[in-house]
Amino acid sequence: MSQFWKPGSERPRLIDDEEGGVIFYSSSPSTSSGFGYATIEKQRQRLPVYKYRTAILYLVETHATTIIVGETGSGKTTQIPQYLNEAGWAEGGRIIACTQPRRLAVQAVASRVAEEMGVKLGEEVGYTIRFEDLTNPDTTKVKFLTDGVLLREMMDDPLLTKYSVIMVDEAHERSLSTDILLGLLKKIQRRRPELRLIISSATIEAKSMSSFFQTSKKRKGQTGEDLEPRTDPAILSVEGRGFNVQIHYLEEPVSDYLQAAVSTVLSIHDQEPMGDILVFLTGQDDIDAAVQLLTEEVHNNRKHSGLIILPLYSGLPRAEQDLVFSPTPRGQRKIIISTNIAETSLTLEGIVYVVDSGFSKQRFYNPISNIENLVVAPISQASARQRAGRAGRVRPGKCYRLYTEEYFVKEMSTQGIPEMQRTNLVSCVIQLKALGIDNILGFDWLASPSPEAVIRALEVLYSLRILDDDAKLTSPTGFQVAEISLDPMISKMILSANLLGCSEEIITISAILSIQSIWVSVRGSQKELDEAKLRFAVAEGDHVTYLNVYKGFLESGKSSQWCYKNFINYHAMKKVIEIREQLRRIAQRIGIALKSCEGNTEVLRKAITAGFFANACHLETFSKGGMYKTVRGSQEVYIHPSSVLFRVNPKWVIFHSLVSTDRQYMRNVTAIDPSWLIEAAPHFYEHQRGNPVAY
DNA sequence: GAGCACTGC
Fold it and tell me: Which ranges carry the Helicase ATP-binding domain (predicted)?
């Protein structure tokens, strides 16, 4: 017992908790043997939501929309769909849907519910996520899916006619897809009064949610024989089952939260009983620094022995990430230093203490410059509560906030800004257009995006010839782009590749651009990584280099050994294969025949230009440090040192994306000929006087 | 010669 789980040995068992979070357990599965149905039934009845069963069913029956506020551990996610099923909402071939923001949650909840119902997953209970449809159209009654998938389903069935009840879970997270979905569901309700919505949220934002779904228009008809539900939403609160978490604030604010976090961890270790510690910092830099400081402390000071210090962020290699789920050996204490990933996406077992820096990295979009920035910003009160809650899952815990109570009350916003208001909207706009919603600014949003952001999105789509002069989808380009589930600029690149005869290569590039990075992130062995990169690098730039990597991967027989030797992330490559396969299917459906350009990199780069012409840059000849300026907008930008064109500095380049730190760095860069710009987008470049493209 | 919070289709 009390052994670390080692990568390569049997993996920890993945189980789900009642709220769709995921816990990784290493103990052998024993719960399902011997007891069976009766025990499960008893477990179900012990959940807080159980005593509201009748009330929930009554409210859903009588109200078009029911808002359920439930804390963690209430059991709402797994139980409510079952109650609805038991009450007959899935009779007559109808389906009960429950959406989640994350794939992992969908899978976990679905398999839990299937187990509780004693059925095989994929029959009465099923789930759909990208790349995976485990439902049976003849038998599935309860279906779990990501909200993104439900949005996609609306393209084929705008009124979502097969669903009797749609439960939107985790609505408080206010992800882009959740917000779009809620706006569209409200529209659907007007056409389908028999449809029932359940909005489930962890926080008491229920009021604004409720007024959003409040339809003023009273339906006609006599009250007695009116079959239609009430239009005012019902609100129901369900208590959670978490343990009490004692909150500690700083008495005086600190300037260095990193140092404060480290000393707080050490004093918890010195003074508090055993139990693991979870520290929330902002990013890889912070986390690596804190890990190093703590590790040194353990080396230098014997009283700090028995500490296991582990970083946790999404960019971490898989084997290292898995370490955080190993059980803590007796007499030791695990310290996990994490990004926001531990706030919602992963549930860690055994955490008793939380240290909250009060900050996270957040994305903000500037529609004027059309640039997305990742900045360290204060979290909201809701986030702080969520973080604190991570300490109370197994027994009463403590949360140490590295800020004052006054700051929490007076300075921190209660909710945080919905993603809708801090992101680029091109994908969102195109989705709505595809559903026939033309007036984007006038759409009934839960939180309206800024007019500037909407206008910028329309402008970009217009320049890509995805929208026409009347801001309607062009045919066929616009409709085809809407069909491809990728960034519209990538979709446009794929369509152009079809005309240029290089679709085979371009869908590979598109798949690779759709994931974070295909390289292994290693800080120590940077030199080796650079050398490995050189084995694939070509003068044309990063995109063509990726083709060489892909080719090498295929030739190796998709070998993980080969990836390891070449500093390539094996899991990333598997994902590339998956996405590429999906793109191949979509291409087939919209009538693109895959064709290879047989090594003609000029047509490849022309296709890339056709999608990304707006990101064209020109080297400032008289500047020394490799400074470029964007052709449109004259933004100062530099080639990122991770690019194969770093220090090569071709005169004209096009980039896929920018990362903003002290400078704007271009990631994924390809050299182009400026004449291709006018060829690809005459409407975008022709009329600019004094533009260097002219000569 | 520098660094990418997190999702999702």
Answer: 57-222
